[in-house]
What does this fold into?
Amino acid sequence: MKNTGIDADRRRFLELTSITAVTIATSAVLPAWAATSASTRIGVIGSGKVGGAIGRSWIRSGHEVLFSSRNIDHDKALAAELGAKAHAGTAAEAAAFGEVILIAVPYGALPELGKSLGNALKGKVVIDACNPFPQRDGEIATRARAQGAGRVSAELLPGARIVRAFNAIGAARMGSAYETPGKIGMPIAGDDAQAIELAARLIRDVGYEPVLVGNQEMGKYLLPGTPLAGEHTPAEVREIAAKLKTP
Ligand SMILES: NC(=O)c1ccc[n+]([C@@H]2O[C@H](COP(=O)([O-])OP(=O)(O)OC[C@H]3O[C@@H](n4cnc5c(N)ncnc54)[C@H](OP(=O)(O)O)[C@@H]3O)[C@@H](O)[C@H]2O)c1
It folds into this structure.
């Protein structure tokens, strides 16, 4: 039977509050600047403004990161600058290396990337920062906007356990969010509870407070130009998200 609006709203309220409860429990026992999760191997595919900034912050909080793009010289230079926990390689090597993968490439690159990676992302937690812009990314972006970017990313990256995050916020301050931990809310969306939990810990480690706005259908709101876009406190993100229509 189809969910009524009230049931859907109640479900979303529970989703929004459950991540908050984990946050409160964690922040009660750790100093604000401390990394909140054990060292994790992270593959970054797309080491530009988003991937470079977030990967750099993950290294800072004790994780091991392999950066990749189509420019290995750039990635080697970045890894050399960041020290022993940073590595460089191909996208396939990043997919193999990471327990978690951050994908931060132009959306139009996903179809080819998905084909070339084959099953390498199967079962992996993939944080999808990619935003579809038809003018930049072509037809696939039009489809992602119509069907929801999370759904289409899942189709393009077979078997990946996708959590959308880092989409609705500018890259310029991503690398310094750790200076004000927990002050800015990071709207996230996904279907896989374990993947969401792991992604949430890593998001917290770079200084944002994750706020689950719902499943992949709600991921359509994680884009520039929606009410969630821009920097908001965690409470504001929850308030805005609660008013959004469940598709
Ligand atoms: N900039 C923002 O404020 C912002 C905020 C939130 C989300 N986003 C989204 O995040 C994604 C990345 O944005 P960005 O600003 O970081 O872009 P960017 O600075 O242009 O970085 C894109 C990265 O992806 C790599 N790349 C491109 N095609 C690739 C492929 N086929 N295989 C492997 N790597 C590839 C690029 O390197 P090579 O070209 O050398 O391969 C580069 O390292 C986009 O979808 C964007 O819409 C951006």
Remarks:
- Residues 45-51, 69-71, 91, 104-107, 109, 112-113, 129-131, 166-167, 170-171 surround NAP (CB under 6 Å).
- The domain at 5-24+36-243 is CATH 3.40.50.720 (Rossmann fold).
